[in-house]
């Protein structure tokens, strides 16, 4: 497969995995019953954890960024919009 095609396909996958416009309501999903999704100060594992979010937590997605091959979304808590941080897009689902 040629390089431009691979890059185009990867870009399409990244855009599709964080679909929806800013302000889209999302739900934490897939962390497991005894695990929490880490809300971080920035878009990578190198940032400090602010909170742990259980499955079912309602969030509002602001925007997304790719950092070292991982898609991160800046979110705020739906019930506390002043609390904003970054989570892995792998654990976000539509409402």
TrEMBL record:
It comes from the Bacteria. This is Bacterial SH3 domain protein. It comes from Antarctobacter heliothermus.
